[in-house]
Write a structure and sequence with these properties.
The structure holds two protein chains of two kinds.
Chain A lengths: L1 E14 L2 E14 L3 E5 L6 H8 L7 E6 L2 E2 L5 H11 E4 L11 H12 L4 H14 L15 H13 L5 E5 L7 H18 L2 E6 L10 E6 L2 E3 L2
Parallel strand pairs in A: 3-8, 3-9, 6-7, 7-8
Antiparallel strand pairs in A: 1-2, 1-4, 4-5, 9-10
Chain B lengths: L1 H13 L1 H41 L2 E5 L22 H9 L4 E14 L8 E8 L1 H7 L4 E6 L9 E4 H11 L2 E2 L13 H5 L6 E2 L1 E6 L8 E12 L3 H4 L2 E5 H8 L4 H9 L2 H6 L2 H9 L21 E2 L16 E6 L5 H13 L5 E5 H4 L1 H39 L1 H10 L3 H37 L6 H7 L10 H27 L3 H5 L3
Parallel strand pairs in B: 3-10, 5-9, 6-7, 9-11
Antiparallel strand pairs in B: 1-12, 1-13, 2-3, 2-8, 2-12, 4-9, 5-10, 8-9
The chains are: A alpha/beta, B alpha/beta.
The complex binds adenosine-5'-diphosphate and magnesium ion.
Adenosine-5'-diphosphate binds next to strand 1, strand 2 and helix 1 of chain A.
Chain lengths: 225, 510
């Protein structure tokens, strides 16, 4: 089943008198439970594509459906709730709220949902922290963690709400290759345990071996293998 | 909510420097606003208390001929118009249920003649029924020397302030008829000249009016008094019995009237011929003695006031003012309105004004002081608001990544604004609240320190001789409301900045 369906997606950035065509017409389907890598050189449109799928940026033209919901016509609150309930994010840097410790950061989106009791929230957060191997650091603040550990927290936080998809824009770009490899291994493991669809972007060919499916992008269009 | 406050609280701790800056500003602003409002309230209350209970009552009735309402301290030499039909007014006043009590008085300037040589001194004088006056203003003054005159006794009581002024002017130190020098009441200068002190136990007053148809009258000094508060102002007023006052001002006195009625020709003839001329000739209701305008050439064959007067209908004579006290809880402006309505339906040539209008100069000085304080507080308010708005907006911009990330993860705009409002509310609750509490404490401690001043202007600020700031429950509530308003005013712009931050702003910074 397709969790994401994208048709004729275009994104233009006005830049002074000219227009940058960041996405020039993307058509793609992503199957539920996939572990997909979008790969392409810098400036090819990976971030733009992920941002639109993640309801962080808007499309200029075309249609994007997540779980059957057309996201291009939603208002701010609907888009926010979409992000909260259906999407998990893992950013390159600055993933965590500095004043909250690991558990609290992982609990944060669950508390925003206002659907669960405190005990349920704590239980689910503890489970994910255990799965990403940070139980010993549960009460540390982000500043007390290494880059790799922070990305683990981000993974736990992205998964805690049971989203339809987890989006990761170059999640390992700021990590050394060993740690980056560990993070991707963890993501793949979580994809297996939680059955959540993962989409991550990279410009690093070495990272591709972790992917189950690969989409290549160049100059705002997908290129066939 | 708990989450918002947890994050807000920890953010405050994380950004301690900013929190302390904003906190201290809020503390100072709240403190100064509270103290300022305490001073203003204390001044209002003090002035009201000291003017209403000490000298004027709530309402003053004046002649309709009076051009200006400001009858307390008139321009030098300008005399106060007369009220002639007190007895009719009395009936009306008695029938007004909002009026508690009233008292008619005479009030004008008089010269105190220098019996040795040199220029005369000046004194403001009140003419009263001694017994009624004491009852009307029971705690407004104390006798420091001599004693308060009894019923129907004639004479004058001189305030300490007036005695000191007269000593400077005419070099006479007035003492009560019965009583010795009280050393602690002497001025420094008088103390130095103790041996040669020119002691006088009677004073010759000569009323001053524009027409100068006044006469001089020698009065025994019955006592020296001191007003409890605002002695520097009220202390200018020497108080004499109404009959002597009328003679002094050249008014047709009640005893003259009663004599006229009883036809006691002997007494009538004792009056100057000119008196009779003007009395019958001009057909005026009251008579003015023709005084000499040449002061230096005055001879002192002054007629001596009788020590006591028999059964005389004082109320038939002439007054200048009627002081009125309202019953507790009666609204001032409404009562004046009602009273004027009643008065306007009568033939009486009178109108009622509030103590505020009557005390004109004091009142307007008070307004100026109040205005200055108020402007200062508003100025502070703006400075505080600007600094806080600036600091908070900068904080919002500095936290773009954090805020954008929170938005990306699913926090609505309301959550972000709640976080900012929460941070500011905590600061204003803690620091501003402390400022208000500190302000209340200071306002309550100051009266205990018994800070006094003899300076007229400072006394105005104090509303009396003692600095007594005061905060009513209402004032405290206003301070809290002001703090809440400051909090919201300061937070509006930073919140808008923070709410404008999108997840994209956070990401594009990477
Ligand atoms: N906010 C923007 N304004 C103008 N041009 C932009 C903006 N964001 C991205 N672009 C342009 O769009 C193209 C795609 O960028 P991006 O999606 O960031 O590529 P990638 O993530 O693959 O490096 C680039 O040419 C980039 O310069
Ligand atoms: Mg990119």
């Amino acid at each position: 089943m397709n969790i994401i369906e994208i048709r004729e997606l275009k994104k233009n950035y006005p830049l002074g008198t000219t227009t940058v065509h960041a996405l020039r017409g993307i058509d793609m389907n992503i199957i539920e439970g996939d572990f997909l890598s979008i790969v392409g050189p810098s400036g090819s449109g990976k971030t733009t594509l992920l941002n639109i799928i993640g309801c962080i940026d808007s499309a200029s033209e075309g249609s994007v459906k997540i779980g059957g919901v057309e996201i291009t016509s939603l208002n701010d609150i609907e888009v926010t709730d979409m992000r909260l309930n259906r999407i998990g994010f893992i950013f390159q840097t600055f993933n965590l709220i500095p004043v909250l410790n690991v558990v609290e950061n992982v609990e944060f989106p669950l508390l925003l949902m206002k659907k669960f009791t405190k005990a349920e929230v704590r239980k689910r957060a503890d489970k994910l922290i255990d799965e990403v191997g940070l139980t010993d650091h549960a009460h540390h603040r982000p500043a007390e963690l290494s880059g790799g550990q922070r990305q683990r927290v981000a993974i736990a936080r992205a998964l805690v709400t049971n989203p339809d998809i987890v989006l990761a824009d170059e999640p390992t770009a700021n990590l050394d290759s060993v740690t980056g490899g560990q993070i991707l291994e963890l993501m793949k493991e979580m994809n297996r345990i939680e059955k959540t669809t993962f989409i991550f972007s990279t410009h690093d060919e070495n990272v591709l071996r972790y992917a189950r499916d690969i989409l290549k992008i160049r100059d705002g269009v997908l290129v066939k293998e | 909510m708990a989450l918002i406050f947890k994050i807000a609280w920890r953010n405050l701790l994380r950004h301690k420097g900013k929190s302390i800056i904003i906190g201290v500003i809020l503390f100072l602003a709240a403190f100064i606003m509270t103290l300022g409002s305490g001073i203003i309230s204390g001044m209002d209350r003090g002035l009201e208390l000291n003017i209403v209970n000490g000298f004027l009552g709530d309402i003053v009735i004046i002649s309709k001929k009076e051009k200006s309402d400001n009858i307390l301290f008139k321009m030098y030499g300008e005399s106060i118009e007369t009220i002639t039909k007190y007895k009719d007014a009395k009936k009306i006043l008695q029938s007004q249920e909002y009026i508690k009590d009233f008292i008619p008085v005479g009030k004008n300037m008089a010269m105190v003649l220098n019996e040795d040589e040199g220029d005369p001194g000046f004194a403001m004088t009140l003419g009263v029924d001694f017994e009624a006056y004491r009852k009307f203003f029971p705690d407004s003054f104390t006798m420091v020397e001599g004693s308060y005159p009894g019923k129907n006794e004639q004479g004058v009581i001189i305030p300490m302030k007036a005695r000191e002024d007269l000593y400077d002017f005419i070099n006479a130190w007035f003492l009560p008829e019965k009583g010795d020098i009280v050393e602690k009441n002497l001025t420094a200068d008088a103390k130095e000249n103790l041996k040669d002190l020119n002691i006088k136990r009677t004073a010759v007053f000569m009323g001053m009016s524009e027409g100068n148809y006044t006469s001089d009258i020698r009065l025994g000094v019955k006592g020296i008094m001191k007003f409890r508060a605002l002695n520097t102002m009220w202390g200018h007023f020497s108080i004499m019995d109404i009959e002597s006052y009328r003679k002094c001002l050249g008014y047709f006195s009640a005893s003259d009237l009663s004599l006229e009625v009883s036809g006691d020709k002997k007494e009538l003839l004792a009056m100057d011929d000119s008196n009779l001329d003007s009395m019958f000739g001009k057909g005026e209701f009251f008579v003015r003695d023709r005084g000499s305008s040449d002061i230096s050439g005055i001879s002192f064959k002054s007629r001596k006031g009788r020590e006591t007067v028999g059964d005389i209908d004082y109320e038939a004579g002439i007054y200048n003012l009627i002081f009125i006290k309202l019953k507790k809880g009666e609204a001032l402006d409404r009562s004046v309105g009602r009273l004027n309505e009643v008065l306007s339906k009568t033939e009486l040539d009178m109108r009622a004004i509030t103590w505020k209008k009557a005390s004109g100069a004091i009142g307007s000085m008070a307004v100026i002081i109040k205005g200055a304080l108020f402007t200062f507080v508003i100025f502070l308010f703006f400075v505080a608001v600007i600094i806080i708005v600036n600091t908070l907006s900068m904080a919002a911009i500095e936290r773009t990544s954090e805020i954008g990330m929170m938005r990306a993860v699913g926090a609505r705009k309301g959550f972000i604004s709640g976080m900012f409002i929460g941070e500011t509310a905590i600061l204003s609750g803690l620091f501003g609240g402390a400022g208000i509490v500190f302000g209340i404490a200071v306002v309550n401690i100051i009266p205990l320190l018994h800070i006094t001043s003899a300076n007229d202007l400072v006394q105005l600020l104090y509303g009396g001789d003692v600095f007594k700031p005061y905060l009513s429950a209402g004032d405290t509530l206003v301070a809290v409301v002001q703090l809440v308003i400051v909090t919201f005013v300061t937070v509006v712009y930073p919140v808008r900045v923070a709410m404008g931050i999108t997840p994209l702003d956070a990401i594009s910074r990477e």
